[in-house]
Amino acid sequence: MTATPPPIPRTLAIAWGLEEAPSRGPRRELTHDAIARAAVAIADEGGLEAVTMARVAESLGFTTMSLYRYVSSKHELVMLMQDAATEVDGDVEVSTDDWRQGLRDIAALHLDLYARHPWFLDVPLSLEGVLMPNNIRVADATYRAMRTLPADDALKQAVLLSLSMYVRAFGLLHRDLQATDITRISPATVELLGQVVTPDRFPDLAPVFRSGGYAGDDPGSPDGTDDFGIGLELFLSGLEARVRTLR
User: Fold this and answer.
1) 90 or 200, greater pLDDT
2) Going by fewer Cβ within 10 Å, which terminus of the chain is more open, N or C?
């Protein structure tokens, strides 16, 4: 017996314009796009936990029941929010002449997204989210950035996934450090730890403490001169070495 394939998720149908707005209920400003943008504004101010169907409906001047005619659950709402937050005005600008610069452009795009919408990092990763329209636009731009990369589609797909996960990790680190108001280890703390992180106990790490290297600048800063930028260049250099072996 042949298994019946699962139906297309309703959220994808809505996002791609395949799901019509309800024929009954308010039809003025209440659209899927308006709902998503209102929810994004609430999340930008108070985090993802601040977003409720009732609060979104109130911000738009409608009843919660009216909202449910358009969005059936919080999950659907969050998926639409994710797509709305990922939207880029105009074309996604990336270098197509130099794949290394192109991937730097993509990394900066992701890091900027997390800086503008910190709650985005709390949205669970899912295949549904990957297939939303604006995420597909970013994926298309990533492949465009790799036009000059001499690699097959399988390797390029691995690059897309690895790069996005790398930037996501730093986006999360930067957000959490900012939330605690601790973006670097204080000199007093370094001095204190230097008394316990001794060469006899930690022979390889102790010199780093003594030089102050372990208390470096904000590791989540996107300016390209810190841990994020160094790690990104290591990623790109490793990729370059990898493609050389395939020639």
Assistant:
1) 200
2) N
